[in-house]
């Protein structure tokens, strides 16, 4: 099979802002789809204005929007709306994450769209879905993390914090992506599109599944344990002799045996029945953490990681963002590409899935409305123009 | 179009453990695929043994494995291996996340599988991918969060913490899911499967995209701000008069205007040029947080949320896991289903994507090897049996 872009030939219209829809459609563009991002002429996507770090562009916007065409349309104007409708007639997919009620106010309620455009896959992202007491409420990543209980299992027991990675947004982007792909696969067989709704709140609730099971069945309410896990032990971060932090993890009784016997050289602990079962180790987490830290602080990071490798125990270095940017695991595996922008080429990561059969498309970060003229010329034949 | 399961008729073989592959294949089962989970007879999936919270089953295992068949096979035994090979001949998809090198040691290296089974979609999940200095290293969620810099943007500047939601695992599950679906869509057109590799480390690096852009382009290195965001302000958690915590978020200059003028009643702040631009508000975050907290502590949570709704400002309650389990937004929208287990029915959430055209399959949590006999009878005709 020759190398090809699996979504080549598909047209995706994006009525999007922030992270959840833009990350979804960026991955569709990575896979070869033509993504037409419809932005309001007055400023466009909010993330364009977060900062000017990337040669005048915002860090978020540059991350999420390369490979797309930007079309500036005011959907309340007749002229622009006709062009948008013409776009939808040719499109395979519409992804949207506007504020609650915004699509309906524009006369673009998803169910109506599906009736007008039977071929269309519509993925409508919202904060809280349709119905229920909160469906009118605006939703941002932090708000959904907080409402969904995620902050209460992160940090320390009396100091809930949010995940720095915007997991509600990114998780929603990835469920939206799989929804588009499920619907496209289905369309190959049925000949019809569909409407899929994805609510950020449902996404966080799904990601909380293990914690929900604890609560629903009378287990201990999971508490945050900083760098540790409420479910398995030992699992955490420990200081080293050379001033680094090593992270060590075990997730089974067998691994605990190897950690104690082969890494720490503590056959007495490996044989101690108080520590045989994971649940008992979880209860005695702090005792084990102290024993491990006493050992790690006597060794350098490199030595610990080499010994851990030999013992078959997972280890990592606690890196910061600067370390990640220079990480040899990314450079050695050629994970960086260059993408164009109005201000010159910038580095960007390749998308996580790798197949030698797939060509990844690396397009440009568009200026607001950069493709309005081209798209109008291509899709707007016979329609009103702004000069009429 | 009649309601149907979009992946009905597909056979998925899962050589899986923990979270990343099991969540991927659970969603394939939700969508109608037949998922055959191959587990080692000596204990099976590690997560079976984390705890016994759910009527004797572990919270993680019950969350991730309903709707699958469990087949206990020792792939180093000739008899079991013949059955496994027979399964692969009929399968559409193989998803695996064994330890580094384990597939190759079993003679199941993905590229060889693709040559033997041209119809097969193989998604191979690893910690660090193929090549580079770390490709031999074991990977768990915490290890990848730490190595990927995620802990350094979570918590407080001198106290990095991990996200309680296992984002490296779950993000990888969702990229694996979209990879399966992309490859199935592609197979409809090319007639051939493919091999896709997804590395947990690449997933976390992708999720760090905004932070990487800051570092790559000489912006400020993002620091964690507990419940806040390093990118936008005001955005955070504030105490209320009735002892609750309200979370408020703004992500644009327009929202800041509404927050200051309409919610706080502070036209002076709305007009103050020091706070006009997001970047300036980020630098003066603590001043704004103090002003907001002085106001929230004089009002009850319900009142604040009603006023925020009217002002068009997003708000949320800081919930814990118990709150989430009883959340009206889940019950009012019928987001709970019952799934069977060997110990009776238990509640489980429906998957996040909702389409009125899709039937969601809600199957049973399998006991280890519960379906070995059935699967052997169905796929093992003419093969050796364990009694030969």
UniProtKB/TrEMBL annotation, chains A, B:
Residue ranges of the TM segments: none
UniProt entry keywords in alphabetical sequence: Transferase
Gene Ontology terms, MF aspect: CoA-transferase activity
InterPro entries, per database record: CoA-transferase_III_domain, CoA-Trfase_fam_III, CoA-Trfase_III_dom3_sf, CoA-Trfase_III_dom_1_sf
Top-level taxon of the source organism: Bacteria
Keyword Oxidoreductase carried by entry: no
The keyword Transferase appears for this protein: yes
Name of the protein described by the UniProt record: Crotonobetainyl-CoA:carnitine CoA-transferase CaiB
């Amino acid at each position: 099979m020759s190398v090809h872009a699996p979504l080549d030939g598909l047209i995706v219209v994006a009525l999007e802002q922030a992270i959840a829809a833009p990350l979804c459609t960026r991955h569709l563009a990575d896979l070869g789809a033509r993504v037409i991002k419809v932005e309001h002429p007055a400023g466009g996507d909010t993330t364009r204005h977060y900062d000017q770090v990337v040669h005048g562009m915002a860090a978020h916007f540059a991350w999420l929007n390369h490979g797309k065409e930007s079309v500036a349309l005011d959907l309340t104007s007749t002229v622009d709306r006709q062009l948008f409708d013409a776009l939808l007639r040719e499109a395979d997919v519409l992804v949207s994450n506007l504020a609650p009620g915004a699509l309906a106010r524009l006369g673009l309620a998803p169910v109506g769209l599906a009736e007008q455009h039977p071929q269309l896959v519509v993925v409508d992202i919202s904060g809280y879905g349709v119905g229920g007491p909160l469906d009118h409420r605006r939703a941002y990543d932090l708000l959904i993390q907080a409402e969904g209980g995620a902050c209460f299992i992160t940090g320390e027991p009396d100091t809930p914090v949010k995940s720095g990675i915007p997991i509600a947004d990114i998780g929603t982007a990835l469920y939206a992506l799989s929804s588009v792909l499920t619907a496209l696969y289905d369309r190959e067989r049925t000949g019809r599109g569909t409407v899929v709704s994805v609510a950020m709140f449902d996404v966080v609730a799904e990601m909380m599944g293990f914690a929900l099971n604890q609560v629903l069945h009378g287990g201990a309410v999971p508490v945050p344990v900083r760098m540790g896990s409420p479910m398995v032990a030992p699992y955490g971060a420990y200081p080293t002799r050379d001033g680094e932090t090593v992270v060590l993890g075990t997730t089974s009784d067998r691994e605990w045996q190897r950690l104690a016997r082969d890494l720490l050289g503590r056959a007495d602990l490996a044989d101690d029945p108080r520590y045989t079962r994971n649940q008992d180790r979880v209860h005695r987490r702090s005792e084990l953490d102290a024993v491990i830290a006493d050992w790690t602080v006597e060794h350098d990071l490199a030595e610990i990681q080499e010994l851990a490798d030999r013992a078959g125990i997972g280890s990592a270095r606690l890196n910061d963002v600067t370390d990640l940017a220079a990480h040899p695991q990314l450079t050695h595996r050629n994970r960086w590409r260059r993408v164009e922008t109005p201000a010159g080429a910038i580095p960007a990561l390749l998308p996580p899935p790798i197949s030698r059969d797939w060509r990844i498309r690396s397009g440009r970060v568009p200026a607001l409305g950069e493709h309005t003229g081209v798209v109008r010329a291509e899709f707007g034949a016979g329609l009103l123009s702004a000069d009429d």
